[in-house]
Amino acid sequence: MTQIERHSFDVVVMGAGGAGLRAAIEARMMGKSVAIITKSLLGKAHTVMAEGGAAAAMGNVNSNDNWQVHFRDTMRGGKFLNNYRMAELHAKESPDRIWELETYGALFDRTKDGKISQRNFGGHEYPRLAHVGDRTGLELIRTMQQKIISLQQDDEREFGDGEKFIKVFAECSIQEIFTKDGAVTGCMGYFRETGDFIAFDTAAIVLATGGIGKAYRVTSNSWEYTGDGHALAMRAGGSLVNMEFLQFHPTGMVWPPSVKGILVTESVRGDGGVLKNSEGKRFMFDYVPDVFRKQYAETEEEADRWYTDADNNRRPPELLPRDEVARAINSEVKAGRGTPNGGVYLDIASRLPAEQILKRLPSMYHQFKELADVDITKEPMEVGPTCHYVMGGVETIPDTCASPYVQGLFAAGEVGGGMHGSNRLGGNSLSDLLVFGRRAGLGAAEYLDSRGGAAVAIDEADLQAAIDAALAPLNATDGETPYTIHHDLQAVMGDLVGIIRNADEVKDAIVKLDALKARAKNVSVAGDRVFNPGWHLALDLTNLLLISESVAKAALIREESRGGHTRDDFPTMDPKWRQVNLICKSDGTAVEVTQQPVPTIPTELLSLFDRAELKKYMTEEELTALPEEKN
Amino acid sequence: MGYKAKFRVYRGDGEQGGLENYEVDVNEGEVVLDIIHRLQATQTPDLAVRWNCKAGKCGSCSAEVNGKPRLLCMTRMSTFEENETITVTPMRTFPVIRDLVTNVSFNYTKARQIPAFAPPADIKAGDYRMQQLDVERSQEFRKCIECFLCQNTCHVVRDHEENKEAFSGPRFFIRAAELDMHPLDARTDRKSFAQAEQGLGMCNITKCCTDVCPEHIKITDNAIIPMKERVVDTKYDPVVFIGKILRRKPRETGKI
What we know:
The structure holds two protein chains of two kinds.
Chain A: E1 5-8, E2 11-14, H1 18-29, E3 34-37, E4 54-55, H2 67-77, H3 84-103, E5 118-119, E6 129-130, H4 136-159, E7 166-169, E8 172-180, E9 183-191, E10 197-201, E11 204-207, H5 228-235, E12 240-241, E13 246-253, H6 267-270, E14 274-276, H7 300-306, H8 322-334, E15 344-347, H9 354-360, H10 362-372, E16 381-390, E17 393-394, E18 409-411, H11 428-451, H12 460-475, H13 482-496, H14 503-521, H15 533-557, H16 575-578, E19 580-586, E20 591-597, H17 603-606, H18 611-614
Parallel strand pairs in A: 1-10, 2-3, 2-11, 3-7, 11-18
Antiparallel strand pairs in A: 4-6, 5-6, 8-9, 9-10, 12-17, 12-19, 13-16, 14-15, 15-16, 19-20
Helix pairs in contact in A: 1-4, 1-11, 2-3, 3-11, 5-15, 13-14, 13-15, 14-15
Chain B: E1 3-12, E2 17-26, H1 32-42, E3 62-65, E4 68-71, E5 85-89, E6 96-98, E7 101-102, H2 105-112, H3 132-142, H4 149-153, H5 155-158, H6 170-181, H7 190-197, H8 208-212, H9 219-228, H10 230-236, H11 238-246
Parallel strand pairs in B: 1-5
Antiparallel strand pairs in B: 1-2, 3-4, 3-5, 6-7
C-alpha cells in the first residue's frame, strides 16, 4: 500500500466557488469540521467571473417585487421544467442570503436611500439583481473567503488552532468518491503542485464543483469546468438530471480568436445596450416567442421608454431569457446578417454617455480595451453565443441537497440539477449558490447528526485501485497526448451537440464519443507528477467524456425544443415532454438514461399564474385542479 | 498574419533551472498566455503555468514578461516586435514550485492575520444602510483580484526575504484601508493595526505597486498614504480630535 497523506473530517466540501464556501460556512456554524478542497488557489473559482449580480426579490428598487414574482419569472425562464420546490426555496430565501453577506462585510452598490441597489436583467420582471458594478461574483467570493478567515480567527482565539474546524486544501483535485453499502466513506485525490496523493475519511461530501463548459471549445468557462462533480456523483452511484440542457450565453466575445467565448455581461443589455445586425437593424423585435408576447415591447420607442418608466411600458426584447436571445443571434448570423467575425453588434456606445458606461461597466470596458483594442464607449462590441452554464446536474432532494441514491452525498450550485429547469435566468446562479450552498452545508450537518458519530473509513483496496488508475497515464508509454483527445472532444460537442441539434448529428456524436473513450484509455503523458498539466488534463478527460456522453444521450432522447435544448427536427415545445425528467446513471464506463416524471407542482404555486399562461406549457389534465379562467 | 516568435521561458524548480529557448507560432489577437498554452500543447506538455479565467478577472496567471510583472492573459502579443525575444519568468518574490508557478502562500498567511470585518452589534441583517458615496472608497480596493503582482514588485520584500515576517505588503494595506473606510465596520483600530502589525511604516511610497496593478487601483494614493496620515490627523486636526473624544469607542489592542 502506497503511503499517502490522510485526513479525517466531518464534511468534505469539493469546490471553493460560491456554493462550496457557503456550504463550508454553514457546516462550520453547525459545529462540524470541514475540509474545503479546491482545484485552484482559494479565491480564483469560476464564481469570480459572474458579473451581473445576484437575483433576490428584496424590492429595494421596485416595491412590487416579492418572492412570488421571482418564482414566476424563474419558472417561465426554465419553461416550467424547473423543480418547483427548488425554485420556491430559492425565491423565498435569496433576500436573506444577500443581506447576510453584508454582515460578512460585502459592499454592494446602493440605492439613494442607502439600501442595496438592484438592476434589471433578462427575464426578471423587476430590477432584482444585487450587484457591485460588473464584478459581483468577485465580491461574493471575496466576502465568503473573508468570512471563512473570520471563523478561523475565532477558532484560533478559542482553541489555539485556526484550522481546527476549517482547513483549505488548495490546488487539490479529487479523483474518486468511495462508498460502502450506498453511503459515503471518503474520497481521494492529488495535489496539483506536488502530485502527491491525499485521502479523506468522511461520511459527508458536498459537491460544489461547478459546470462542464470545457467539453466545448467556445465557452466562457475556465479549465476547471471539467464536470468533476457530475462524473464523481455518477461513479459513486448518484444520478444526473436533464443533462441535455446547456445554456449558451448570447453574448460572448467573438474576436480576437484566442478569447472567443469570453463572457460579455448581460448587464450591458440591462443597462440599455441593444443588439443590431450588420444592416444596423435592432433585430430582437422579430424574435419574441408567443409565450412571452405579452411582456415585451413591440416598438423601439416603447422599449426605450421602459428604462425610465417600467410601470407603464413593456420590456425591450433584448432582455428576453438567454436561450431566446442566443437562438436569435444564431439565426441572424446564419442568414448572412452577421458581423465580419461571425457575431452581431452589441451597442452601448450610442445609448449611454461615456462616463456612465465606465461607471456601470468598468470591467467590460477594461476587457474590450485590453483584449480586443475596442473602446466600448465609442464603438459597438461584436458578440456571439458561448457555452456558459449547464442546467442539468446532480439530482438532489431540494430541501437538503442530498442525493436520493447515495447517503452522505450532497450537491449545490451549478453541479446541482433541477433548480433552473431548461434555462437559467441571469442572476439566478449567484443566488442559487448562496441558497443551496447553505442548505447543502446544513443538510450535511443534519445527516451527520442523524447517523451518530460512527467512524467511517475508506476501503484500502479501493483506495489503491484509485491510485493505480490515476497513475496509469504517467506509467503508460507511446500513448496519445491528452491535448489532442480534448481538442477532438470539443470539436464533436461543439459541432454535433451544440446550440442547435438534430437526431442524426447527435447519433454521430455518440459514436464518436465512444471512439474518443477508447483513445483516452491509451493516453500517456510525459514528465513527472510535479505540477504536470498534461497529467492533470489526462485525468480530467475521463470526467469530461462521461459527462459529454450524458449530454449527448439525453439530447437524443428529448424530442422537443425547450430552453437550452434546441432540436431542429423537433422545433417546438411539447407539453408531454414537460412532464419528463431524463435521469443519467452510470457504472463509470457507460451512461444509461431513463425517464422519470417531473414532480407535480402544487396548486397553491400553480395558482400564482394565469391559467391562460399555463396552457402554453401544460396539458389540460394538469390544469383540472385550477379554477376556470375569469373573463 | 501569423509568425514565429522567439520565446525564452524559465524551466525548472526552486533548486535549479534556467531559461530555455523556443520558437512558437503566434496568431492575430493572441496574448502571452495563448503562446504558453501552445507550447504546452505542441512542444512542452509539462510546462507548468497557473491560470483560470483568461480574462483578467481571477489573477492567477501572474508572472514577469521581459522582467515586468504582468498577467499573462492580459499581455497582448501585438505589444511586442515580431523579431523581439520575449522572456517569461516566474514572479521573483515568491519561491518557484515549477516553471512559471510560484508558492504564493505568503499572501494567504498575511490575509489570515488581518482582523476580519466587525459587524455593527446593533444593526440586523437587512437593515444595513450606506450611501453610495461612502461605499465607493472601499469598493475601489475590493476590485482587487489578488494577482499579487503588487506584492511581487514591492522592493520591501522583492529581494528581502528577511522583511517578509514583519511586512504584509500593498495587497493587505488596501485590505486594511478598505475596512478602515467601511462605513459600518465596528473596529476603530485599523490604522494603528496597520502601523503596528502590518509593517505599514516600511513602505516608502515609491508607487511601484500602483504601477503594476492590473485593476488600476490607486494603492499608494488612495490607501497607503491616507493610512499613513492617521497620526497627523488625530493629533493636529482639532475637529477630528474633538469628534473622536465625543464619539469615543473602546480601544482595542490591535491584536487578534
